UniProtKB/TrEMBL annotation:
InterPro entries: ND/Mrp_TM, NU5C-like, Proton_antipo_N. This is NADH-quinone oxidoreductase subunit L. The keyword Transmembrane helix applies. It holds the Pfam family Proton_antipo_N.
Length: 587
């Protein structure tokens, strides 16, 4: 009964978010203020803002959250009340970020999202990888949030206001503007898993698949893109910050795409894809133009649809197969079993992967082309940043097509060269399963799981046309050619039953190991030194003082013998000693 109540409340709240977006659509932008707190120049109010960007993000968050809540009814059957409450709180935190016109109110929503993500990722807390992934997500994002907090103070005190709508028109020094925006960028990099704080997001995959869809498609990781879009005039005025953002975005999109090329788990491929696609949005924002901002937000919306769809499809697959490993899924895919047993999942996941790969006609094609076109216009005007972004996005587009086709073929189709495919990945048990997989129980999920898939699949197609069909044929031809160039090697490798993965890619460039040596090991040594200092130095003094007090009390206790003769003797001795002392002093 309690679980059902929470589920009804969760779905109801998500629908309320959608209703709010509908009611606010077309309304005049306005700011509503509530009493605040602080002292002197550090005083701030809690302000709410409604404009076109607010409506757009409320619609995205509301739709994806509703799909996740409905999907979870059939997907999740343990710890339902806590799970639904956290998902609802998580959605409310993102809504707070979206409607905030106060930097500190935005910070509250920002931090609540971080806390909820930690708890949701560790939903299966009995699993070691879930606990480790949740802890990594919490620590890495908190590291970025330290910079975010200081950035709020630098910008707010420098501009004399913490109201977002007033920052762009304030008289703030160039130094404070650059420092403040760079510090905010540190928080954005952590929350959106960009280099060098990218390692937490792929390791967050042990959480439930609907959680991955919510966190990695439309809310937490997208909050960084939203923040820069909200403060775009402020960031555009800080030219140095935009250059840093461009470098971070270009490095991240290529790095993450290469990691996705080599990943062997379905959700891990999608996780690295999320990191890469977010970097494309940041690259568009780094152009500092209205077209770049528009392209970034367009891609944010389409990405929410097709990436949410892909994570939910992965959840259906893993719900049936019982493992997140891409290797295990291939036990069934040798004979194309999943495609035949789960037709709805196959079709919807195909649509999601096509949108992600930028296949013409799907939403991702239009939004990705808008980024390429914005970069081309900027590069044509002689901008070095424009050329760097253009080349990086094109290379990433080709690699995206590669890992999308690779994932699609290996999961859903029988490998023609079966004999050549059995050596590299599967152990003896897995090879035995290839010969006679148990397919009797494989089926599509319930309508509560399939309904959200169909809805998001429609979005992964239709959203490309919602912005008005604007196609630059040279750009469309270029991106289509890049998709084909990326897809052909994946098809060739699959047909030959080969899936070579260079060690450096398989180990994701060894970044985790390097961070372990550079950060984790020194921190552990410092922790041990702190323990030794506290236990043997500070604790030694404390224990010594306590021991001295104990010995003194034991000595005094020895004087309390209860013998009257002893007390009189000591009293007489004391009087004589005082008399002698008085005589010495008087002399």
């Amino acid at each position: 009964m309690i679980a059902t109540t929470w589920r009804v409340l969760g779905v109801g709240f998500s629908l309320l978010v959608i209703l709010s977006a509908i009611l606010l659509y077309g309304a005049d932008p306005q700011v509503t203020s509530f009493p605040g707190t602080g002292a002197g120049s550090a005083y701030w109010t809690f302000d709410l803002r409604t404009d076109d960007l607010t409506v757009l993000l409320l619609a995205v968050v509301g739709v994806v959250s509703t799909c996740v809540q409905v999907y979870s009814i059939s997907y999740l059957h343990d710890r339902v009340a806590s799970y639904t409450a956290l998902v609802t709180l998580f959605t409310a935190a993102m809504v707070t970020v979206v409607i905030s016109d106060s930097l500190f109110l935005l910070l509250i929503g920002w931090e609540v999202m971080g806390a909820c993500s930690y708890l949701l990722i560790s939903h299966y807390w009995e699993r070691r990888d879930a606990r480790a992934g949740a802890m990594k997500a919490f620590l890495v994002t908190r590291l970025g949030d330290v910079g975010f907090l200081f950035g709020i103070f630098v910008l707010g005190l420098g501009a004399g206001t913490f109201r977002i709508s007033e920052l762009s028109g304030s008289s703030i020094s160039p130094t404070a503007l650059t420092v403040g925006t760079v510090l905010l960028l540190v928080g954005v990099v952590g929350k959106s898993a960009q280099v060098p704080l990218q390692t937490w997001l792929p390791d967050a995959m042990p959480g439930p698949s609907p959680v991955s869809a919510l966190i990695h498609a439309a809310t937490m990781v997208a909050a960084g893109v939203f923040l820069i879009a909200r403060l775009y005039d402020v960031f555009v005025a800080a030219e140095t910050t935009l250059k840093i953002l461009a470098v971070v975005a270009c490095v991240t999109m290529l790095f993450a795409a290469l990691c996705a090329v080599a990943a062997v788990e379905v959700k891990r491929v999608l996780a690295w894809s999320t990191v890469s696609q977010l970097a494309i949005m940041f690259a568009a924002l780094s152009l500092g133009t209205a077209d770049g901002r528009h392209a970034a937000l367009f891609h944010l919306v389409t990405h929410a649809a097709f990436k949410g769809l892909l994570f939910l499809c992965a959840g259906v697959l893993l719900h049936q197969v019982g493992s997140a490993a891409f290797v295990v899924l291939r036990r069934y895919t040798r004979r194309g079993v999943l495609r035949k047993a789960m037709p709805v999942t196959f079709v919807t996941m195909t649509i999601g992967l096509a949108a992600l790969a930028g296949v013409p006609g799907f939403a991702g094609f239009f939004s990705k082309d808008s980024v390429v076109e914005a970069a081309w216009h900027h590069a044509r005007d002689g901008s070095t940043i424009g050329w760097v972004v253009l080349v990086s996005v094109c290379l990433t587009a080709a690699m995206t097509a590669f890992y999308c086709v690779r994932l699609w073929l290996w999961v859903f189709f029988r490998t023609p060269a079966l004999a050549g495919a059995l050596g590299a990945f599967e152990d003896d048990d897995a090879m035995a399963d290839v010969e006679d997989p148990d397919t009797s129980k494989l089926r599509d999920g319930s309508w509560l799981m399939l309904g959200p898939l169909v809805l998001l699949a429609v979005g992964a197609i239709a959203l490309g046309y919602a912005d008005g069909v604007h196609v630059s044929w040279p750009v469309a031809g270029l991106t289509t050619a890049l998709a084909v160039i990326g897809a052909l090697p994946a098809y060739s490798l699959w047909q030959r039953g080969a899936d070579p993965r260079p060690v450096v890619l398989e180990q994701e460039f060894g970044v985790d190991a390097a961070y372990g040596k550079a950060v984790v090991v020194p921190v552990r040594w410092f922790a041990k030194l702190a323990v030794l200092g506290d236990r043997d130095v500070v604790g030694g003094y404390v224990r010594g003082i306590g021991r001295a007090g104990t010995l003194a009390s034991q000595g005094l206790r020895m004087l309390q013998t209860g013998n009257v003769q002893t007390y009189l003797t000591l009293a007489v001795g004391g009087v004589i000693a005082l008399a002698i002392l008085a005589g010495v002093i008087g002399a």
